[in-house]
Automatic annotation (TrEMBL):
It comes from the Bacteria. It comes from Acetoanaerobium noterae. This is CHC2 zinc finger.
Length: 354
């Protein structure tokens, strides 16, 4: 990443006729604050951060640059071209995959087996990796502590090319002093886009999951239970969480029947409601109908009842979602189906369909 923050400040000073002070140590004054406008701010040109002592506004060089040059201009000028030219995402992904398999720390692999329920085939198919304590991207000069000790998930486009890498913090893998249960994408490649977990141009339905972990497990479940159904079903997830809607998600994008399987929590419900408004082809599948207690997502369901029964439940939830407004007779038929499942499928699992 571009590191000569002093040069950026001098550029802004020249472009906007803003006075600056001489550098003392690693700090200089810049006589403009994005909030109170006229008061000067102190800038640390080593870290690229600033503070205004009048209004207490803090920020980084990107914030300051965009406030003067326009939103997104810092990314366009100083990040995008540099990252696209320098980083080989396939190479980095391969290094992360290798680290997962060869690391003396077996906790990351056990996490993928036991908590995420992935098979070796799934881990290899989706090129899942591990960034250890010694992880470093040699082409970048900044220190990226937030990317260390994370499980990594590549982000794929429709062609199967890697367009970004997601770094996920995990308890017992990420040290407690750094753990904030956060997910990071590589800077410069966009944070809100679509991860095409499974894509074929001839699909006749689309399933959306809230994040990569659930979407990847759903892909595994479909492959293991009904290959023909799998081949006709696209699976995607947004890369910036349940509340995000990637720019390409418009009415034309959802041109085939679409079902959303988001988490059974406030954020998941809100995200589904927002997406549901985009197109008449979209329906919400409520996992709350088959989850109990503190369970909230598709992985919880698979952990509870196994892959085969989870596959059948996905089909049921899709049917319920598609037919939720088709009339009393259909609802009676579906309710009878649910009661039948309650008597058979769930009798050993202390679960019930609402």
């Amino acid at each position: 990443m571009f590191k000569d923050y002093k040069a950026i400040i001098e550029e802004l000073s020249l472009n906007h006729n803003i006075k600056t002070s001489k550098v003392i140590g690693n700090e200089m004054d810049f006589y403009y604050c994005p909030s109170c406008i006229e008061h000067q701010i102190d800038i640390n040109i080593e870290k690229g951060v600033f503070k205004c002592h009048r209004c207490s506004r803090t920020g980084n060089i990107k914030d300051l640059y965009d406030s003067l040059e326009g939103e997104g201009e810092y990314y366009r000028k100083y990040i995008k071209d540099s990252f696209n030219l320098k980083l080989d995402l396939e190479k980095i992904t391969y290094q992360l995959q290798t680290n997962l398999r060869k690391s003396r720390n077996k906790v990351p692999l056990q996490y993928l087996y036991n908590y995420r329920l992935y098979t070796d085939e799934t881990i290899e198919l989706f090129k899942i990796g591990y960034a250890g304590e010694d992880f470093k991207i040699t082409e970048l000069s900044e220190k990226h502590y937030h990317l260390k000790n994370c499980i990594t998930f590549p982000i794929f486009n429709k062609s199967g090319e890697i367009i970004n890498i997601k770094f996920k913090q995990v308890q017992k893998i990420t040290p407690d002093k750094y753990f904030k249960n956060k997910v990071f994408n590589l800077s410069g490649y966009g944070s809100s886009t679509t991860n095409y977990i499974h894509y074929t141009a001839n699909a006749d339905k689309l399933w959306i999951f809230e994040g990569e972990p659930d979407g990847i497990l759903a892909n595994q479940v479909l492959i293991n239970n009904n290959l023909d159904f799998y081949k006709s079903t696209n699976i995607i997830s947004p890369t910036a969480g349940a509340s995000s809607i990637p720019r390409e998600w418009n009415e034309d994008y959802f041109n085939i029947p679409t079902t959303i399987f988001y988490d059974n929590d406030f954020t998941g419900h809100r995200g589904m409601s927002k997406i549901n408004q985009i197109s008449a082809n979209i329906r919400q599948a409520n996992l709350e109908n088959v989850l109990v207690n503190k369970e909230k997502d598709f992985t919880d369901l698979v952990r509870k009842v196994g892959e085969e029964r989870s596959f059948k439940l996905l089909l049921l939830l899709e049917t319920l979602a598609i037919n939720e407004n088709k009339g009393v007779d259909m609802l009676k038929e579906l309710n009878a189906f649910k009661e039948s499942l309650n008597r058979t499928l769930f009798k050993d699992f202390n679960m019930t369909l609402i």
